[in-house]
Amino acid sequence: MLRPNPVPNQFLTHSFLEEKGIELAVKRLDLVHPEVSGNKFFKLRHNLDQAKKEGKNKVLTFGGAYSNHIYATSQAAKAEGLECIGLIRGEGVKPFNHTLSSAEKAGMELHFIDRTAYRNKAESEFLVELKERFGDFYLIPEGGTNGLAIQGTSEILGPEDQQFSFICSSIGTGGTFAGLYASLSSTQYLTGFSSLKGNFINKEVSELIRIHRIYSEGQYSILTQFHFGGYAKYHEKLIEFIWWFYENFGIVLDPIYTGKMAFGLWELIRVRYYPRGSKVLMIHTGGLQGNIGFTERTGIKLPMDAPQGL
C-alpha cells in the first residue's frame, strides 16, 4: 500500500487573524507524497490495494486532459507496480500538456474518447465493451470517488486535529468531503467550499452519505458562492489572492480547488462567520500539478514552489 509522508499542520500568523481572534492552520496534504499529492493519495491507496487483492495487475480510470486524478492515478499505479489505462475526454492533440505527458511517462496508456461516449462511462454495456477491448482491469471511477476512496479520506483527520472546532475543505466529486464528515467528532463542524456552480452538490453529497451509510458525530454545511463562475473558471481577484497567500505564508494554492476555498474561508473570517476564539483547520487537498497546465492554457503565471525564507 502507498506509504504517506508525515502531514504537518502549518499554523498561520497574520495581523488579520489576530484582529479577528481566529487560530488558523493548514493541513498540508500537498506534502503527503512526492507524486501522489493531497486527497488523491487517500482516495487511491485502498483502491490500488484492493486491485492487488483481487489479483488484477491493471487499473482503468477516466478524466479530462488536465485532471489531477489522471496524473495521480498514473503515479500511484507506477509506485505500486500496476499497469494503468486512462480514458481521456476529448481529442488527443500532441504535444500533450504537462498532465498527460507526465501520466504517459509514468506508464499510463492513454486513450481518447469523444464527449458523447464519455458520458456512458458508468453504463454497464460500455464497461463490458471496455473489458473486451482492454481485458480484465480494476475500475476506478472518474475523480476516484467510491466506497474505498471514502474509507481513505476518512483517515485524513488524526488525533492532532481534535483541537479544531471547524474543518474546511474544497469539494469536487464529494468523496473527500464525505470521508472528512465520517471522521468528525461531536464538537466539530465541517464547511465545504464547492468549486462547481450550482446547488446540486448538496444533493450529490447527501446521496454519497446515504449510499455509503455514513454516520457522523459532527455536522456540515456546503457553501456554493465561491466558485468564481464555475469549475475551472477564475477571476483576476482569485489569482491575486493566490499570489498574496503564497507571499505571506509560503503555501502554493491552485485556482480550481484550494485557491477558491482559501479565498472563501478568508472572507468568512472577515465577516466573523466563525466566533472569536475559534480554531479552524483548512485542508490543503493538493493538486498543484494542475498549476502548470493552467499556465499552459491561460498564460497566467502561478506560484509553483515555496519562496525562500518562509
From TrEMBL:
Cofactor(s) in the UniProt record: pyridoxal 5'-phosphate
Xref: SUPFAM superfamilies: Tryptophan synthase beta subunit-like PLP-dependent enzymes
Annotated active site: 67 (nucleophile)
Species this chain originates from: Algoriphagus locisalis
UniProt family annotation: Belongs to the ACC deaminase/D-cysteine desulfhydrase family.
GO molecular function: D-cysteine desulfhydrase activity
Keyword Ribosomal protein: no
InterPro entries linked: ACCD_DCysDesulf, TrpB-like_PALP, TrpB-like_PALP_sf
Protein keywords: Pyridoxal phosphate
PANTHER family: 1-AMINOCYCLOPROPANE-1-CARBOXYLATE DEAMINASE-RELATED (PTHR43780:SF2)
Name of the protein in question: Pyridoxal-phosphate dependent enzyme
One Pfam family hit: PALP
N6-(pyridoxal phosphate)lysine, modified sites: 40
Domain Tryptophan synthase beta chain-like PALP: 17-286
